[in-house]
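[job 4471] stage=fold_predict status=RUNNING
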Amino acid sequence: MRMLVVLNENPVGSHADVRRGLLTLKSRSHLDEYVIYPFSARLSSGTSPAAIEEEIIAAAADLEATAVLWCHTQGLDVATATFSRVRSLPSRPVHGYWEGDMYQWPYKPFPPAARRVACACDVVFIPGSSSFLLGLRRSGCGDVRYAPLPADPDRFGHSAHLRQTESEFDVVFVGSNPTSRIPLKTMPGARWRGQLVAMLEGKLGRRFAVYGHGWRGPCAHGPVPKEGQAEVFARSRATIGNNNLHAAYYFSDRLPTAMSCGAVTLHSWEPGFDQVFGHDAPLRFFCSTEGAWEAVRRVLETDDADLEKERLRARDLALARFTISHVQDYIVEVMRELWQARRTGVSPRVVLNPWLHREQL
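[job 4471] inference complete, writing structure tokens
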């Protein structure tokens, strides 16, 4: 498999996790060759969309690409003819679209430009099933697969040494407070997030800490950079989180990141989590504000030795199933089978989803 990755990267090199994951696949011979085309950087440099399309076609031809993976292309409108021209190359590439964000009308509609790219592709990978999936189906996307948001093991898989002997906090919440001035536009999970934070402030006082934009009060500690999250988790007995948008199988990358850091992780429940994580996952889920407090209370009643075992199990699960190379490996395997089917005229082999019990959403 020779893959051209059309990446929403600006500046070049800022998606180091994506680049390391692809390098890992190549080192394991799961990917023969790849080239990254950072379309966001090209747009910001003043390159016109038409010139970018020509550069993408030329890059696919030079690579003799068998697959083109379009990543989160909300800022790039691509002509339908471009896909046909790429498919007509001698290597006959297949197209895939990989979306790492969750969308839901009316709170966060899928950008029209990205929708057009996704619908022109042979397969689409999204991180959850909701009205987002239904919208893709209505737009003509027939082959849609689940690909969860992953952890970056190079940044967060080796942070156990940061844990302090005495925890500064009982619980930390890492996430912004994304409210809108228009009530209808405030995402359901964002409203609940405010209730969770207020409840934990009232119950725990200064033993609770919330990090992120938009929070005020004695427990607010301001935003924390991605690289600093491991240290935040290490200062607390547990971390808690919830989704802004509710969708089956969906969670943001904060969940596998916390797991890979070896944090005791509490998170809001979404349908299908028993499939994605397994029935005996080292995670504590809740479905209501009262359930969140009950989960926190049980953590506080658990001795440190048992919590440490839970941390190690969470980290092992994240590194075994939820790293970026795991997700990329699945995407590459699916696209390889689609390309083989196009080349031979034989139906593609079923590629079982590593996280769900079926091939497609």
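[job 4471] summary: Residues 155-321 form a domain with the Rossmann fold fold (CATH 3.40.50.2000).
[job 4471] exit 0
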